[in-house]
Design a protein that fits this description.
It comes from Pseudohaliea rubra DSM 19751. This is Glutamate uptake regulatory protein. By secondary structure, the chain is α+β, with helices and mostly antiparallel strands. It has five helices and four strands. The chain has a four-stranded antiparallel beta sheet. Helix 2 crosses helix 3.
């Protein structure tokens, strides 16, 4: 559900997207509000699920996961039971970061990070438990841009 965001809300969100570790005092000062007014705005944004969480972003290569893979999946089973089983399988496969149901030639697109090709094979073996009809993978050779910042 979208809510109306005013200039101050957008400014707070920009600041938090750049650095979620900013203190309430720093945020309040940056948007020219009292701490309590700033806190109420943040609570409103969290309640409306505009802010879904606050995380620390890690460098995958620095933690032994240098290989990013995009996995295109096609299925010939387009029913609720299969979709629930697929959702369950991908939710428990370690390394899977994002999963999207797509329109067009591919039914699902999966983004995963792995240590190497044997680690990808482990992940692949877990994915095929979901009875997939066609799986293809593309391996990232170079990341040209990566951002978590939404344009506000």
């Amino acid at each position: 559900m979208a809510i109306d965001l005013d200039r101050v809300d957008r400014q707070l969100l920009r600041l938090l997207q750049a650095d979620a570790a900013l203190s309430l005092a720093d945020l309040a000062e940056a948007v020219n509000l009292s701490r309590s007014a700033c806190w109420r705005r943040l609570q409103k944004l969290e309640a409306a699920e505009v802010i879904r969480g606050r995380v620390t972003l890690l460098n995958p290569a620095a933690v032994g996961l240098p290989l990013t893979v995009f996995i295109s999946i096609r299925t010939n089973q387009h029913n609720q039971g299969w979709a629930e089983r697929f959702r369950e399988v991908v939710s428990r496969v370690e390394g899977v970061q994002e999963v999207y149901r797509m329109g067009g030639d591919v039914d699902y697109l999966v983004k995963a990070v792995v240590a190497d090709m044997p680690d990808y094979d482990r992940l692949y073996q877990q994915l095929i438990e979901a009875d997939l009809s066609d799986v293809s993978a593309g391996f990232v050779m170079e990341e040209l841009k990566h951002s978590t910042v939404l344009p506000l």
